[in-house]
Automatic annotation (TrEMBL):
InterPro entries named in the record: Uncharacterised_HI0310 (IPR020493)
Sorted UniProt keywords: Signal
Pfam family, one: DUF5339
UniProt organism field: Entomomonas asaccharolytica
Signal peptide span: 1-19
Record keyword Signal present: yes
Superkingdom of the source species: Bacteria
Name of the molecule in the record: Uncharacterized protein
Length: 96
């Protein structure tokens, strides 16, 4: 499950973006994704990945969202947030 979470985080987004450039849904997603990334750093290391590289890739992907229209941002970030929440639930269930 941690691999899925990591995959969602890394594959979905990167690069720092000013909050004013993102719709609320994206701000909410990135708040959750930032926390998930920080919580996954030990797993990232255990998988033999460089945490700084993963963080840089994640930050770089955020920039892509500023190129999207507000409607596109809402749609994409809503889906990404839903997927992240599902991943968290699955991970919590697996831990029990």
């Amino acid at each position: 499950m941690k691999k899925i979470l990591l995959g969602l985080v890394v594959a979905s987004f990167s690069a720092s973006v000013m909050a004013a450039e993102l719709v609320t849904e994206c701000q909410d997603y990135f708040k959750e994704a930032d926390a998930a990334l920080e919580a996954s750093l030990d797993t990232i290391k255990a998988q033999g990945l460089d945490p700084e590289t993963v963080k840089a890739q994640y930050e770089a992907s955020k920039t892509q969202f500023t190129a999207l229209s507000a409607d596109q941002q809402k749609s994409v970030c809503k889906q990404a947030l839903d997927a992240l929440e599902q991943s968290k639930k699955a991970q919590a269930a697996a831990a029990q």
